[in-house]
Amino acid sequence: MNARKIGAPACLLMIALGASACADQGQPDAPTPSTSATSAAPAPTRSEIQVAKHYLTADELRADIEAKTNINCGSWKPVANPIGARERAACTEGIVLSIYRSRSDAKDSAASVGEMIAGTLEQKSIHVIGDTWGVNCGDNEACGRDVAEALKGEVLVFTPE
């Protein structure tokens, strides 16, 4: 059999996933778990691990927000020619939903808008981002908390200096 060596990062990933093909990598062996009278809960399976969902449209993002939170977008309006986003829509609650090409685009846009609002309007600006989506909650802390929890997003808060 022709053995194939894998690097340490791949080895760590495989260990986390339960694989045992990481022998002889010049790394110390991982400690062997001990057994005791009380056992820890089993590791979550891949289907149990919750990650941020990938949304293709602002309408899909809006529908999930409304289904999983107490936020109601009401009569929301698409934004024509959204700068930096593939698609953007504004809710009547002052919440703005955006779909981006990448997570870095979502993070860059949130930083740009958040810093501008905090600096110019001198108010807090709360954004929640996922893999290719972003929600600008304005200064609504409950929106930021609820969207982040429901959609497994990352919260970015910008405050006036």
- List low-confidence stretches: 1-51
- Determine the structural class based on helices, strands and strand pairing: alpha+beta
How would you characterize the largest beta sheet?
6 strands, antiparallel
**Which CATH class of the domain at 58-158 is shown?**
Alpha Beta
Distance between the termini: 63 Å
* Series of H and E elements: HHEEEHEEHE
- Name the helicity range: 25-40%
How many helix segments?
4
Number of strands: 6
| CA-atom Rg in angstroms | 21 Å
Examine the coordinates and then state which fold CATH places here, giving the name of the CATH topology of the domain at 58-158. Phosphorylase Kinase, domain 1
Mean pLDDT reading: 74
Strand order of the largest sheet: 1-2-3-5-4-6
Give the DSSP E fraction (strand runs of 2 or more residues). 5-15%
The general outline is globular
CATH architectural type of the domain at 58-158: 2-Layer Sandwich
Structural commentary:
This protein has a six-stranded antiparallel beta sheet, sandwiched between helices. The longest helix has 19 residues, at 103-121. The protein contains four helices and six strands, in the order H-H-E-E-E-H-E-E-H-E. 31% of the residues lie in helices and 15% in strands. A hairpin with a 3-residue loop joins strand 4 (125-129) and strand 5 (133-136). The chain has a domain at 58-158: Phosphorylase Kinase, domain 1 (2-Layer Sandwich). The termini are far apart. The chain has 161 residues and is of the alpha+beta class. The radius of gyration is 21 Å and the shape is globular.
